[in-house]
């Protein structure tokens, strides 16, 4: 009897001293839990100290060390973090804080045991490719991605989970192995099994916690040396690459945005990371940068699906540099479609039921723009220097005066999209026609697409592949087989020669069993590099949509780079390029003029922007210091008209708005006593485009006698000059100085070869 009693005591002692897989509660009442074989997981004298820890999570005067030992033969095996806190904290608090802060660290938790949650698995991104997620069994159709660092399960099925990236640390188990939990307080000589679990473990200042995986439930000695984890730094430099706005996985997760770096790496869910796991609305179909803000448009406000992300609404405004949320709106009048900035104070929201005003300055959704609510859903909208052009599903092309927010003209026809080209011309696309719309007179010229079609996507609206180059006077799009089936070719239209190339480039991945197909807007052009960015997914439905590629083509149509995204149902909506540069005003715009009659200064080529369409820059008169001396207006031809009224001097301030970025120029206007009779004098001198890639143009009313080009060191350059055009295609990148001698003056200007 005594012998049996001692055996019972020994059994209970071992049971309560075993290393537990408990992370939130105390020991769960389940017979599958296997006792650790020893009270103390032997540990040599610890060589790692608090001073060695590099990555600290939390703040406070107390500190603890958190270590994980995978015992999987991969380097580095045993890792350590630091945790700081004030007041009282538990082992669970520490585990979850580190999971949330370090995006490389992930876990599988079972929430629902009698006494709390169990830690079924722990993983770490060893190779830095950021593929963080789990497969359950052989189900590759529905991968599981962590929220706040962990995936939940509702059963003791830990053995069935494996990491998506097999090169990562990952250990899980319930039958074949298990995670054991050990602690050491400052007064302890060695680690001992924590019988209360992580939620019952009250941390002490200078305590240590170790999660130690036991393969086949054989508890291995705790390492004497832990490798300090380097701090996790999420990329915040969103300047050297481009954004991919995603519809995301309907019913599971709301819209998201990734940033694809020029070096090929990808930062996923950058908005959610910056905003405590908040997302956009449901099916984020459009995004654009205007000024310093990023405007994300979703079709609906929130999903009824089971998700751990918090929805942000149909319109979300974020800081374009940091992704920090500025505002979110569930109600924007109807389901979202698009957005365009009109001026520094106002934007237009395209919806399924018309265009709504948006107060940028005060962040408020305004009223429906009169006349736009009866034309069906609104698609793409563009802002030229004078007007807003908007396509609708059933009401043709709307032309709006942004100064008065008035619909001034409608061009009938079934349009799919609209763009403005480098030369300032406006183009709409129909099933098998390009429609050229004069940007100021609105006259229409049609160009039939020879053999292919562009059939759009009004059914499940997206922004479409119709796009333009800011460096070359050309348009591009992807051909279509039907409204629901894309073709395989990128088509190019040369605006200058009015010629089509329907085989400019071929979509990759057409020889495999399952083909690559474009999704969403699919095709956009980098305004700086002039590279074409094409996103594709895989046909075949289901799990095939987890496969996503981003291809880069040069201006000749040659494929230069392919990036493969992490497997997931991203459903990319559109590519958006960062707006890094501000507009630059040429010094050919005079700082002072003398006028005796109405004088016109052409502003069309006075201002440029390296990462936006220069032709679309909005010019306005900000102020006139003395309206009794001179009046100043900008006409529909982007010309400044100065009309003297009486003798005197006044300062006219011109504002240039390039995609929401502003620059101003002051002109001192001197009026003479001998006022004219209404004849116009035109002051004109322009060196454009600037920056330039191929041909630099000189425009002046004077006769050009001599032109000399110098590099930045002052050395003259042998330049080919003909008809006031200079071929600079062979010049090295950099700044140059041009000296122009005319029959009336000597001009010195600077230009940049890009």
Short synopsis of the structure:
Residues 687-752 form the Secretion system C-terminal sorting domain. This protein has 754 residues and is mainly beta.
Describe the fold and architecture.
Strands 1, 2, 3, 11, 12, 13 and 14 form a 7-stranded mixed β-sheet that branches. The protein has a 4-stranded mixed β-sheet with strand order 8-4-5-10, covered by helices on one side. A 4-stranded antiparallel β-sheet has the order 17-16-15-42. The chain contains 4 helices and 60 strands. It folds into 5 domains: 15-228, no CATH class; 243-326, no CATH class; 462-573, no CATH class; 582-683, Sandwich (Immunoglobulin-like); 685-754, Immunoglobulin-like, CATH 2.60.40. With 754 residues, the protein is mostly beta strands.
Sum up the structure in keywords:
754 residues, mainly beta, 5 domains, seven-stranded mixed β-sheet, four-stranded mixed β-sheet, 5% helix, elongated, disordered N terminus
How does the SSE layout of this entry go?
Layout: H1 2-17, E1 56-57, E2 62-69, E3 78-85, H2 91-101, E4 105-113, E5 116-124, E6 134-136, E7 139-144, E8 150-153, E9 161-163, E10 169-172, E11 177-184, E12 192-193, H3 197-200, E13 207-215, E14 227-228, E15 241-246, E16 256-261, E17 266-267, H4 270-274, E18 282-290, E19 293-300, E20 315-319, E21 325-329, E22 336-343, E23 346-351, E24 354-359, E25 364-368, E26 378-383, E27 388-392, E28 397-401, E29 406-411, E30 417-420, E31 426-429, E32 433-437, E33 444-448, E34 467-468, E35 474-480, E36 486-494, E37 499-506, E38 516-525, E39 532-538, E40 548-553, E41 559-564, E42 572-576, E43 584-585, E44 592-595, E45 599-602, E46 607-608, E47 618-624, E48 630-634, E49 639-644, E50 648-658, E51 661-671, E52 681-683, E53 685-688, E54 695-700, E55 704-711, E56 716-717, E57 720-722, E58 725-727, E59 734-742, E60 746-753
Parallel strand pairs: 1-3, 2-13, 3-14, 4-8, 44-51, 45-52
Antiparallel strand pairs: 2-3, 4-5, 5-10, 6-7, 6-9, 11-12, 11-13, 15-16, 15-42, 16-17, 18-19, 19-20, 20-21, 22-23, 23-24, 24-25, 26-27, 27-28, 28-29, 30-31, 31-32, 32-33, 34-35, 35-36, 36-37, 38-39, 39-40, 40-41, 43-46, 45-49, 47-50, 48-49, 50-51, 53-54, 54-58, 55-56, 55-59, 57-58, 59-60
